[in-house]
Amino acid sequence: MKQGESNRRDLLTRPKAVEERLHDGSLCLVDTRPAEQFAHHHIPGAIHFDLFGLSLSDTSPAPLKAFLVMMHHLFELRGLTQETKVIFYEETSGMRAARGLWFMDYFGHQNAQVLDGGMGAWRRADYPVTTDCTIPKPGKLKITINNGLLATADDVLGSLNETTCIVDTRSDDEYLGRLIRAARGGAVPGAIHLEWTHNLDAEGKYKTLPELETLYRNAGITPDKEIVVYCQGGYRSAHSYVALKLLGYPRVRNYLGSWKEWGDRSDLPIEKPWEMQ
Fold first, then answer.
1. 3-state DSSP call for residue 49?
2. Is 210 helix (H, G, I), strand (E, B) or coil?
3. Contacts 24+ apart (CB under 8 A), 183-187
4. Where are the beta strands (DSSP E) in 132-200?
5. In Å, what is the CA distance from 231 to each residue of 37, 82, 253?
6. What is the pLDDT of residue 161?
7. Quick count: other Cβ atoms within 10 Å of Cβ 205?
8. Spatial contact of 210 and 16, defined as CB atoms under 8 Å apart
9. Is 28 among the residues known to form the active site?
10. CA-CA distance, 210 to 247, in Å (whole number)?
11. Which helix (H) or strand (E) holds 86?
12. How many CA atoms lie within 13 Å of 196's alpha carbon, on the beta-carbon side?
């Protein structure tokens, strides 16, 4: 199997499976919701780590390396080790939890999952919640970097004339330039637009595999291609990364700098989809 290729169909877990392991000392539950939601109530034993806002808008080598060293250290401070069973969750199967899972895959941790449906599914199952806080004990997380899961601006630029399939997971307003969140509005040339929210059902869980397969194949996003997903800062694209890995797509890369980097750099090409309609 080539660098960057993996088949991870075990990325989701259900409330019942988590509830049965609440007293398992090797389990690390990571609540990725905003702090005020965690303080209101959370799953017993969970530690808090809101991944939102930890962004990188320059994927050139030096800042990329510094950012990844920082993220590795932050995960260690939350008690993660290579032997830990890690489960990320938020209110639904959202982008924060997905981003945590993507980092674990990138760092070579093979025992991480997302609680499908998040706290909403946990509460619907009538499982216990608490306001008690668990203080994490720092761990030592040995990593084996999988660079094939990460795309830089140079990687994306170099793939524009190849068979790589670039997927824009942002909202319609962002894609069509009605909401501009960088120096320029637009999209990466040739990108297929498929908003990340289409991955979810009405309860905030990932759709079934047949539904996801139909969604992506109908958009022309097929497993024979290398896929690069992007959004504004690598969060929503991580969600689509998880969806594609659930389907067994072997080569999926998350463009970590995403549109914030691409749109701010005047030397990178863009297209304006609203002018092409």
1. coil
2. helix
3. 183/263, 183/264, 183/266, 184/263, 184/264, 184/266, 184/270, 185/263, 185/272, 186/263, 186/270, 186/271, 186/272, 186/273, 187/270, 187/271, 187/272, 187/273
4. 150-151, 165-168, 192-193
5. 25, 29, 12
6. 81
7. 20
8. no
9. no
10. 9
11. strand 85-89
12. 24
The two three-digit tokens of residue 254, written as one number: 């998350």
Write out pLDDT tens, residues 172-200: 999 999 999 999 999 999 999 999 999 99
* DSSP code at position 137: P
Measured over the CA atoms of residue 29, residue 98, residue 145 and residue 260, the dihedral's sign is: negative
Amino acid identity, position 212: L
List the one residue out of 270, 273, 225, 275 whose CA is nearest residue 247.
225
Place of tokens 């080539």: 2
Phi, psi angles (nearest 5°) of residue 172: -60, -40
Distance CA(36)–CA(30), nearest Å, equals: 15
- Residue in 28, 133, 165, 231 annotated catalytic: 231
How many CB atoms lie under 10 A from the CB of residue 28?
A: 24
How many helical (H) and strand (E) elements, i.e. helices and strands, does the chain have? Answer: 10, 10
% of residues, the chain, pLDDT over 70 = 96
**pLDDT tens sequence across 13-34:** 999 999 999 988 899 999 999 9
Task: Name the phi and psi angles at 225, rounded to 5.
Answer: -100, 155
Q: How many CA atoms lie within 13 A of 128 on its CB side?
A: 11
